């Protein structure tokens, strides 16, 4: 199988695994604290990663690997924690499309850290993403989208996309300083490491949360770990083959799946308008892809 075919498979895997992970995360937050859910998902993958790198000479890795792994771990732990918190409070079919802003964040951060420069199509794409998000957000309660940006779930989602968008740039640097296997292990280990103090910061009670875990929760955590692993591996492979901005733009096709999953699993409303707004945002992302 050629590199082009593998890249297509990786992109499709990322597009489907991300909203699936969000569905499971939202289901788990019905009974458990979102930051506990975030910590467990990181920790399970960190334990699995031990078998991938146990015989690798870690001390031989360059300092850049550790530097960007730490920065990525901090951004990822807080970013994914805020994402799960947003999913607890808000609608998947609204929070999913907001993720389209990640490509905008990725372009800005990549410009300063990687020297990746967007062209006129990139700026036009940003405009379409903003217009599409206005349509999606105006569905809720018939109010102004500006008021909706003050809602707690939206604010958490915006914080999450800024942090995870920044993390994407650090992840690419980790890949450049090592390989895909080490990049995956780095994402898991440092995410688990820095998600632990977040539990103490938000005063999450371990004992109470562990008592809430039943067979159904264990199955969901297993499925979440699998979907997140697929998401991270496919993301890292895509980043190894193309620039951060266009890659994040391609991933935004998943917002349509988020809208459908919100309707299917959580009976969220205004499906048609959210699809229209999402399509406009995807069109903006396609234009951003052309910055290559």
Question: Can you give a write-up of this model?
Answer:
The protein is built from 14 helices and no strands. The protein has helices at 3-28, 34-53, 63-89, 92-98, 101-114, 120-137, 145-148, 152-176, 180-201, 206-211, 215-241, 244-251, 254-266, 271-289. With 292 residues, the protein is an all-alpha fold. The mean pLDDT is 85. It has one domain (3-289). The longest helix has 27 residues, at 63-89. Belongs to the EamA transporter family. It is found in: Membrane. Its main location: membrane.
Write the layout of secondary structure elements.
Elements: H1 3-28, H2 34-53, H3 63-89, H4 92-98, H5 101-114, H6 120-137, H7 145-148, H8 152-176, H9 180-201, H10 206-211, H11 215-241, H12 244-251, H13 254-266, H14 271-289
Helix pairs in contact: 1-11, 1-13, 2-3, 2-9, 2-11, 3-8, 3-9, 4-13, 5-8, 5-12, 6-14, 9-11, 12-14, 13-14
* Cα-based radius of gyration, to the nearest Å: 18 Å
Helix percentage range = over 70%
* Residue share in β-strands: under 5%
What is the typical, i.e. mean, pLDDT?
Answer: 85
Concise structural overview:
81% of the residues lie in helices and 0% in strands. By secondary structure, it is mainly α.
Main features:
mainly alpha, 292 residues, 0% strand, globular, 14 helices, single chain
């Amino acid at each position: 199988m050629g590199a082009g075919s593998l890249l297509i498979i990786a992109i499709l895997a990322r597009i489907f695994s991300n909203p699936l992970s969000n569905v499971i995360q939202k289901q788990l937050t019905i009974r458990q604290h979102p930051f506990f859910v975030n910590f467990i998902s990181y920790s399970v993958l960190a334990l699995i990663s031990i078998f991938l790198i146990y015989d690798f000479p870690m001390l031989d890795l360059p300092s850049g690997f550790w530097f960007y792994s730490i920065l990525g771990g901090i951004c990822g732990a807080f970013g994914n924690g805020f994402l799960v918190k947003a999913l607890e409070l808000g609608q998947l079919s609204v929070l999913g499309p907001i993720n389209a802003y990640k490509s905008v964040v990725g372009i800005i951060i990549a410009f300063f850290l990687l020297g990746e420069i967007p062209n006129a199509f990139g700026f036009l794409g940003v405009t379409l993403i903003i217009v599409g998000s206005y349509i999606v957000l105006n569905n809720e309660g018939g109010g102004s989208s500006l008021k909706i940006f003050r809602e707690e779930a939206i604010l958490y989602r915006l914080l999450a996309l800024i942090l995870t968008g920044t993390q994407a740039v650090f992840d690419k640097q980790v890949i450049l300083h090592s390989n895909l296997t080490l990049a995956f292990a780095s994402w898991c280990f440092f995410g688990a490491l820095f998600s632990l103090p977040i539990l103490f910061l938000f005063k999450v009670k371990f004992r109470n949360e562990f008592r809430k875990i039943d067979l159904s929760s264990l199955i969901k955590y297993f499925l979440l770990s699998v979907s997140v692993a697929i998401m991270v591996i496919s993301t890292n492979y895509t980043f190894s083959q193309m620039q951060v901005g266009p890659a994040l733009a391609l991933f935004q096709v998943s917002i349509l799946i988020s809208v459908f999953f919100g309707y299917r699993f959580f009976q969220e409303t205004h499906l048609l308008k959210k699809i229209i707004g999402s399509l406009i945002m995807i069109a903006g992302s396609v234009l951003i892809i052309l910055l290559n």
